[in-house]
Amino acid sequence: MKLLLNFEISKSYAEWKAVFDEHKAARDAANIKDVFVGVEAANPHKVHLMFEVADMATMQAFMQSPENAATIEKAGHIVESTVMVPLAE
Q1: N or C: which end of the chain has fewer CB within 10 A?
Q2: Pairwise CA distance, residues 1 & 44, whole Å
């Protein structure tokens, strides 16, 4: 399934993206595939992502694991601002 996410970041997009890119191996190991990664043109602190995942539980487990949660926080991702939308084709 495709999963659309958006959230706010407390750091610059470049800083957030560097940590996100460094964490690709962990996403790959969890079978989470990057489809789209970008930032709003009018708001440099609002990130939009699309992933291909097996199901919502996979993404939720990934984000809640202590190691991944620490990386997400380090990147400047404001977790409470996260909106996840499962998409159907």
Answers
A1: C
A2: 27
Question: Could you give the number of structural domains in the chain?
Answer: 1
pLDDT in tens, 45-72: 999 999 999 999 999 999 999 999 999 9
Residue 81 is part of a domain; what is its CATH number? Answer: 3.30.70.260
HEC readout, the chain: CEEEEEEEECCCHHHHHHHHHHCHHHHHHCCCEEEEEEECCCCCCEEEEEEECCCHHHHHHHHHCHHHHHHHHHHCEEEEEEEEEEECC
